[in-house]
TrEMBL record:
<protein>
    <recommendedName>
        <fullName>Transposase</fullName>
    </recommendedName>
</protein>
<dbReference type="Pfam" id="PF01527">
    <property type="entry name" value="HTH_Tnp_1"/>
</dbReference>
<dbReference type="GO" id="GO:0004803">
    <property type="term" value="F:transposase activity"/>
</dbReference>
<dbReference type="InterPro" id="IPR002514">
    <property type="entry name" value="Transposase_8"/>
</dbReference>
<dbReference type="GO" id="GO:0003677">
    <property type="term" value="F:DNA binding"/>
</dbReference>
<dbReference type="GO" id="GO:0006313">
    <property type="term" value="P:DNA transposition"/>
</dbReference>
């Protein structure tokens, strides 16, 4: 369960970073 939660948080962080990167790149 702990591992799953950590993965979910990592995914959210990656998505947020990706979106921010795309915005900056744009």
């Amino acid at each position: 369960m702990k591992k799953k939660r950590y993965t979910e948080e990592q995914i959210i962080g990656a998505i947020k970073q990706h979106e921010s990167g795309v915005k900056v790149d744009d």
